[in-house]
């Protein structure tokens, strides 16, 4: 309704402008302006009007020749008749807004030299006021020899009718000063003026005057008072006045209803309604429309439905006018289906109603229907306005059809809205969301007026952009004097997150605090996400503690973020906090927390979460299933991972990838390849991650030719460009097969420059095959790329040691210490009875160290009896052989193993140990022997892979 009103006003203004301009232009300009400014000081003697007419060409219409004026000039009786005729003519012109015709009548009056009676003076004032020529009306008024309350009221009502409330009040004061007393029409008009400019103070003074003058019982004055109080939000006063009015008057009741509806007081709207019905006052369609308008603005669906019911009862439901209000009400209350039901019955809905309907569908996420409705509207021949276009463009952003978006853009041009900020903002978003950032940027650049929404729309385009364009845009927003809002901050923080720029992120955080937005849930979530992704978990936790309210999305960001930042314990901690808060996790929260369990390799906590997943009914969700498979796999329980995988009904790419990669990690290459073939027959498209798994599987199975075939199929068949990880897998395949020449030429032909990963892989192959010459060259490269990494020195010295090149071993060791590189201490951990126990190499701090030592000695005795000889070449320290043996026997994984063997749940068939570094050759040999002596399976996950030790051999076939 409001829209409709605005449109009418606009239409009126537009059609008037040329007329008004003509009038204005015909005045001598400078004179006119000074007159306008001093309008209240107009001189009564100044006969501007006659001089004005002398400059306008007037051709009297043919009908005028028969006018009584010419025939019966002179007689007094005829004078009266003439005066009446002029008045009537001016009234017609005023009603129809025939400015030119009215001006000619005025000229005739001047020409005829007739003496004007007060009625004609008022008619003239009324005519000019109604035609919007307020200053001329004022001039006529000033020429009046005697001004009474009627002429004053005509002038005031002219100004008020044109929306100049303040001017109306000013004129009223002027009237007062002249000692003219108002009548009931004057008071009703001035009350309306107060209402227009919401001048409640003056209105209250008038109220007093109304009572004093005894006009309170007048219907117009009474309803004007009610309207004033209602519009100014003084509903108590409004209701009191309304109830005191002697006669029930529908107009004042409507005002009151509207006031309550606008204030969202549905209880009182309904109460008033009931009273109106009791008084048998006529509930016309305008009453209903008034209330519907209120219901729409306050989103009061309940009251809206009651009005709809009344419309049906009163039989006015089928009135187009009322139906349009119903559509508007249901749309604004978000009830698309109800709105559609009414809408479909309309014979010819106007543009406002079409727009309301399209906007509602768009906001309810029914974009396809919005688009269909829009094309129906277009084929009905209606011109869209900027609101229709903004809604349909917003709908298009979810449709993902760039061609359709372009069509709408053309439409915007065609109908002349290409310069409307509202439409352009929607267009920027639609292009960016549908994958054409450049088009969105082009629109932004050509806009003549940009608001904060325009900037925010552009900023959202940099969300997933790793460059710092988003941050630059943020700076520009500040430079252009805009005050960022929460959308600005969310987008900027997301930019910081994707470019991993936590330094700038911290500065943005400072701004957020300045604007006191840091306790806002949405901004807080963006901040948390930025901090956890940059691994600043402590900063993220500070925000969590400051938030007023934490919703599921925030919890999920915290929980998944901690897991990603390798803070598994914290991830699980916040999951428990969330449960205490009574917030139910969704599939993303669960998957996030499962990743936390994987990160700390806690199969115990993982299992607890697994049973929660089953209870909560999320077990078939592919996202959760992938996280479960991943968790069991990473915790060394490949069998459990397999069981979960097989129980899930539909497998997506991520789930296939997870199981394939886990099989490869656990040396079950055949199963990985079988899965891959299965995946293809089920038409699930593989991606880059699939090939990492499948190439690792080929490498471990030494299926060099098959590996090459898969590698080439990536580009030839699946259009997946290989990444450095894929190249490293190929180097591993060739290196493991001892094909060093081929590996080297492969590296030379790579489209990406080789990095540390490639050289480390090749160095590993050199160690296994004892390739001293190449190993030395590769190690040199690595010493330059990453001089601080200890494992490269150790690997090279192992290569020398295996070939008895002790001088070279010493040289590498010297190099290592001269570079200040320290060997990272070995660290292993094992979960026993749900508790994780951590052991450092040579650690003596464990509570049960004596029992562990005893177990170590017992095992060593058994192993020596089956032929175990410690291989001291793996000890790089310059100490005696006995000491070297002692050091070896206290490597962290052995301490963890012995602790597990002496613990209560040692009846487990499998011991699973996790280690931060690669397992050394001596421990590898030791574990193989232990697995046969103690009749237990031992699983060790080292820095690179899983080793399954069983009955004297390892799944890696001694290649790692
Ligand atoms: Zn070891
Ligand atoms: Zn192994």
Description:
The chain is mainly alpha-helical and 960 residues long. Among the domains are: 1-139, no CATH class; 147-243, Alpha Horseshoe (Serine Threonine Protein Phosphatase 5, Tetratricopeptide repeat); 455-549, no CATH class; 827-954, no CATH class. It has 52 helices and 6 strands. A 6-stranded mixed β-sheet has the order 2-1-3-4-5-6, with helices on one face. A hairpin with a 2-residue loop joins strand 5 (946-950) and strand 6 (953-954). One zinc ion binds at residues 924, 947, 954, 956, 960. Residues 891, 920, 922-923 line the site of one zinc ion.
- Which ligands appear in the coordinates? zinc ion
Mean pLDDT comes to 84
In order across it, which strands form the biggest sheet?
2-1-3-4-5-6
Count of extended strands: 6
Which structural class do you get from the secondary structure elements? mainly alpha
Radius of gyration: 43 Å
Helix content: 55-70%
Shape: elongated
The protein's oligomeric status is single chain
How many helices? The count is 52
What ranges have pLDDT less than 50 throughout 5 or more consecutive residues? 1-74
Distance between the termini: 75 Å
Task: Describe the sheet with the most strands.
Answer: 6 strands, mixed
Strand content: under 5%
Organism: Helianthus annuus (Common sunflower)
Pfam family, one: E_motif
Protein name: Putative tetratricopeptide-like helical domain, DYW domain protein
Keywords: Repeat
């Amino acid at each position: 309704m409001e829209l409709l009103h605005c449109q009418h006003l606009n239409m009126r203004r537009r059609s008037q402008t040329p007329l008004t301009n003509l009038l204005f232009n015909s005045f001598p300009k400078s004179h006119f302006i000074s007159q306008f400014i001093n309008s209240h000081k107009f001189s009564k003697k100044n006969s501007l009007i006659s001089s004005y007419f002398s400059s306008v060409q007037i051709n009297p219409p043919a009908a005028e020749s028969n006018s009584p004026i010419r025939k019966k000039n002179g007689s007094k009786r005829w004078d009266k008749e003439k005066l009446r005729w002029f008045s009537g003519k001016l009234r017609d012109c005023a009603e129809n807004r025939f400015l030119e015709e009215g001006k000619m009548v005025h000229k005739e009056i001047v020409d005829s030299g007739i003496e004007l009676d007060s009625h004609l003076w008022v008619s003239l004032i009324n005519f000019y006021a109604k035609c919007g020529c307020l200053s001329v009306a004022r001039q006529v008024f000033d020429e009046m020899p005697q001004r009474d309350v009627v002429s004053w009221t005509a002038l005031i009502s002219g100004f008020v009718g044109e929306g100049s409330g303040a001017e109306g009040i000013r004129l009223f004061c002027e009237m007062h000063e002249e000692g003219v007393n108002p009548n009931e029409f004057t008071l009703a008009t001035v009350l309306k003026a107060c209402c227009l400019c919401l001048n409640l103070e003056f209105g209250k003074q008038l109220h007093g005057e109304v009572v004093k003058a005894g006009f309170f019982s007048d219907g117009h004055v009474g309803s004007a008072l009610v309207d004033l109080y209602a519009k100014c939000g003084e509903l108590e006063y409004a209701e009191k006045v309304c109830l005191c009015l002697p006669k029930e008057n529908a107009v004042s009741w409507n005002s009151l209803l509207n006031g309550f509806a606008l204030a969202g007081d549905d209880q009182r709207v309904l109460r008033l309604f009931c009273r109106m019905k009791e008084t048998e006052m006529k509930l016309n369609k305008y009453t209903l429309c008034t209330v519907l308008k209120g219901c729409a603005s306050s989103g009061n669906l309940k009251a809206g439905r009651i009005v709809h019911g009344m419309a049906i009862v009163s039989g006015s439901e089928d009135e187009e006018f009322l139906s349009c209000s119903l559509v508007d009400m249901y749309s604004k209350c978000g009830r698309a289906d109800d709105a559609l039901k009414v809408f479909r019955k309309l014979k010819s809905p106007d543009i406002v109603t079409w727009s309301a309907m399209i906007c509602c569908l768009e906001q309810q996420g029914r974009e396809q229907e919005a688009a269909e409705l829009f094309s129906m509207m277009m084929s009905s021949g209606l011109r869209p306005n900027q609101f229709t276009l903004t809604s349909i463009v917003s709908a298009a952003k979810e449709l993902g059809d760039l061609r359709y978006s372009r069509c709408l853009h053309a439409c915007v041009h065609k109908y002349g809205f290409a310069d409307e900020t509202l439409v352009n903002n929607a267009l920027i978003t639609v292009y960016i969301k549908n994958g054409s950032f450049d088009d969105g940027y082009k629109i932004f650049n050509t806009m003549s007026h940009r608001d904060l929404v325009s900037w925010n729309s552009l900023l959202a385009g940099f969300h997933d952009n790793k460059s710092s364009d988003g941050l630059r845009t943020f700076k520009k927003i500040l430079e252009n004097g805009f005050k960022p809002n929460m959308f600005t901050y969310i987008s900027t923080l997301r930019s910081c997150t994707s470019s991993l720029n936590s330094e700038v992120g911290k500065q943005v955080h400072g701004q957020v605090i300045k604007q006191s937005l840091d306790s806002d849930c949405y901004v807080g979530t963006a901040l948390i996400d930025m901090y956890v992704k940059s691994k600043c978990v402590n900063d993220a936790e500070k925000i969590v503690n400051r938030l007023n309210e934490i919703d599921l999305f925030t919890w999920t960001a915290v929980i998944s973020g901690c897991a990603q930042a390798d803070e598994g314990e914290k991830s699980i901690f916040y999951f428990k906090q969330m449960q205490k808060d009574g917030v139910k996790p969704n599939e993303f929260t669960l998957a996030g927390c499962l990743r936390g369990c994987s990160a700390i390799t806690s199969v115990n906590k993982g299992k607890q979460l697994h049973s929660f997943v089953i209870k909560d009914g999320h077990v078939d969700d592919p996202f959760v299933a992938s996280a479960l498979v991943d968790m069991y796999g990473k915790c060394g329980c490949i069998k459990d991972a397999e069981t979960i995988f097989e129980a899930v009904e539909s497998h997506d790419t991520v789930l296939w990838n997870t199981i394939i990669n886990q099989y490869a990690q656990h040396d079950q290459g055949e199963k990985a390849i079988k899965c891959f073939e299965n995946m293809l027959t089920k038409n699930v498209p593989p991606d880059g991650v699939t090939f990492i798994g499948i190439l690792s599987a080929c490498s471990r199975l030494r299926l060099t030719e098959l590996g090459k075939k898969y590698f080439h199929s990536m580009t030839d068949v699946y259009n997946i460009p290989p990444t450095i990880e894929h190249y490293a897998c190929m180097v591993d395949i060739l290196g493991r097969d001892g094909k060093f020449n081929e590996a080297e030429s492969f590296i030379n032909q790579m489209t990406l420059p080789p990095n540390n990963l490639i050289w480390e892989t090749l160095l590993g192959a050199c160690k296994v095959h004892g390739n001293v010459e190449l190993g030395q060259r590769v190690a040199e490269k690595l010493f330059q790329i990453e001089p601080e990494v200890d494992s490269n020195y150790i690997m090279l010295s192992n290569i020398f040691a295996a070939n008895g090149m002790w001088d070279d071993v010493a040289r590498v060791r010297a190099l290592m210490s001269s570079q200040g590189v320290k060997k990272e201490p070995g660290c292993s951990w094992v979960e026993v009875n749900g508790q994780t126990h951590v052991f450092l190499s040579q650690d003596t701090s464990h509570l049960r160290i004596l029992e562990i030592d005893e177990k170590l000695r017992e095992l060593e005795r058994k192993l020596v009896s089956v032929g175990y000889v410690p291989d001291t070449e793996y000890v790089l320290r310059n100490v005696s052989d006995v000491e070297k043996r002692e050091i070896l026997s206290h490597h962290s994984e052995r301490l963890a193993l012995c602790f597990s063997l002496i613990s209560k749940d040692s009846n487990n068939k499998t011991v699973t140990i996790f280690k931060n570094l690669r397992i050394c050759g001596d421990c590898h040999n030791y574990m193989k022997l232990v697995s046969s002596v103690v009749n237990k399976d031992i699983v060790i996950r080292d820095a690179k892979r899983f080793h399954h030790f069983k009955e004297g051999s390892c799944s890696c076939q001694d290649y790692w």
